[in-house]
Design a protein that fits this description.
By secondary structure, the chain is of the alpha/beta class. It is 23% helix and 29% strand. It binds adenosine-2'-5'-diphosphate.
Amino acid sequence: MEAARLMEVVEGPVLPKSVTEESVLAVHHWTDELFTLRVTRPASFRFRSGEFAMLGLMVEGRPLLRAYSMASPSWDDGLDFFSIKVPDGPLTSRLQHVAVGDRLLLGRKPTGTLVLDALTPGRRLFLLGTGTGMAPFASLIRDPETYERYDEVVLTHTCRNVADLGYGASMVDALGDDPLVGEIAPSKLTYYASATREDFIHRGRITDLIDSGRIFEDVGVEPLALESDRVMLCGSQDMLDDLSTLLEGHGFTEGNHSEPGHYVIEKAFVEK
Ligand code: A2P
């Protein structure tokens, strides 16, 4: 018996030292293509709101991991992740089927540039997300420091279809009941959602909405200004390229950990 168990341990898949094994606490399917996962958080796992970590599964005896932004606030006991489902995607085709109690792999070292410290001081913070690029902002809008540093926070989320906006909208709706930011967030945060391929109250790509000034008219705030505004971007590579070009055209410079700037970027998790 002991010998058999020992064999199992020796022959079983070997976990890399860089990951821990965590349990799935909850799964929520928002649409046929989007879902959220809540997993246990190891006591040693510390992160700053806006960062990402590696998340995945053992597949055929090997760890298969992808970068995922933490969508939960840094003070939360559990960790939330927001994912697309790609039918033939190596990881998400499997990850979408996990159930409560299943084991997942989590990288020990969170990292990323969508952090408040990578921006120079400003008055307004724009969080511009498309698709699953909402995830890091779901964390940042529940961090009290976001509201300590900025007078106004404008969160935009653009998706192809209206149903894809559901997760972000529910995060914003719940802010009033949040134990830490429930008082301050509703008075400082403006949420602007738009759809590009369906009729909706706001329609269009965020690039066009900024370019035309439409978003500022709709929200009733001053247009983008270098002196007052700082920006975080999270979306596809094309979205990041186009918005970076737009911002640089206004004189904004990209920041990072060692050199804070006017804006920071992170690619939303995509699996091709
Ligand atoms: P569109 O429907 O016009 O492509 P995706 O799921 O491909 O990442 O897209 C998420 C959202 O981001 C969609 O609404 C999409 O609009 C929009 N989008 C895609 N590419 C860009 C871009 N280069 N600039 C701004 N928004 C973009």
